[in-house]
Amino acid sequence: xxxxxxxxxxxxxxxxxxxxxxQVMARVKGKRLRxxxxxxxxxxxxxxxxxxxxxxxSPRRNELSRxxxxxxxxILAANLSFLAVVSADSPSPDWxxxxxxxxxxxxxxxxxxxxxxxxxxxxxxxDTIDTLQDYERIGYRTLLCSAKAxxxxxxxxxxxxxxMAIIVGQSGVGKSSLINRLVESADQPTxxxxxxxxxxxxxxxxxxxxxxxNGGAVIDSPGVRDYAPSTDNAQDVIRGFPEIAxxxxxxxxxxxxHLREPNCAVKAAIESGDISARRYESxxxxxxxxxxxxxxxx
Length: 298
Ligand code: GDP
Ligand code: ZN
Known about the structure:
Blueprint: E1 5-10, E2 13-17, E3 23-28, E4 41-45, E5 52-57, E6 63-67, E7 73-78, E8 82-88, H1 95-108, E9 111-117, H2 126-138, E10 141-144, H3 153-160, E11 164-169, H4 175-183, H5 189-196, E12 207-211, E13 217-220, H6 234-239, H7 242-248, H8 265-271, H9 277-294
Parallel strand pairs: 3-5, 8-9, 8-11, 9-10, 11-13
Antiparallel strand pairs: 1-2, 1-12, 2-3, 4-5, 6-7, 12-13
Helix pairs in contact: 1-9
The protein binds guanosine-5'-diphosphate (GDP) and zinc ion.
C-alpha cells in the first residue's frame, strides 16, 4: 500500500495525495516534523474537520538541501529521481550555478540534464555549444529548447517521463514557462486543492508537484533559485564532479584534493584537455564555499 504523498506545501500546511488518488489538505503534528514536497507520510483524518494530520515522515531516498543564511540545512524536496538544470542566453548563463546543481544531483544519486532554453532569441553561441558539449562528455544529457516557440519540448517531455523531477536554475531562465508547457495537457488536481484550501490562489506556495502527461511528475519550487549544495567536506565536492572523481583515482595521494599536490592526475587531465578548465574552476570555488560553510562564515 502506498502512503500519502505530499504534493504541495504552503508553509506548515500541505496538500496530500492519498493512496486512492483523493487529495486533502493537512496540518503537521508538532514543530519538529518538517515534511517537504515528495515526502511519503503517515497521516490520519482529524475528527469533525476536513483536514488531515501528518504524524510522521517515511524514510527519504534522498533530499535536495541547501544551507540557509542561519547556517542550517534547509530541505527543498525529497525522493527525487531526476534534476533538470535550466539555463539560457538571457539572463546570461551562470555555469557555476549549473555546476552547483549538478553537484547536488550527484550527491543525491539522481540523473541530471542541462536544458538550454530560449533558443528562439538567438542561435546558441560557440561558447554555449562548447560548454554543453563538455557536459555531454561528462555524461549529462543536454537539450536546446524554447518554451516560447514550443521547440524541442517533446524531447524534454521524453527526458522527464516517469521521473520524479525537479526543475532548477537561475531566476528568469524560463523554468515556470517550461513547466507550464510541459504540464498543460495533464490533469492538475493540485490546483483544485490549493484553491479549495481557503488559502486563496495567490498565497505563497513553497513548492508544488505537477503531474506530467507521460507519467511522472515535476516539482516547481521557488526555493531553488539561489543555490549551493550543502556539502560539508572536500570528498563531497569531489563526488559532485564525476570527471574529477574519475581521474582522481590515479592521483599519487588517495586523499588528493587536486589543488597543489604533486603527481595529481586531475591537473594532468586539465593540461591535456580531458577535464574542462572551467569545470575545474567551479570545483575550486565550491571547495572554497564548503570550507567557509564548515567554518561558519558562509
Ligand atoms: P523562471 O524565473 O525561471 O521561472 O522564468 P519564467 O518562466 O518566469 O520566465 C522569465 C521570462 O522569460 C518571462 O518573461 C518569460 O516570458 C520569458 N521566457 C521564458 N521562456 C522563454 C523562451 O523560450 N523564449 C523567450 N524569448 N522568452 C522566454
Ligand atoms: Zn589530484
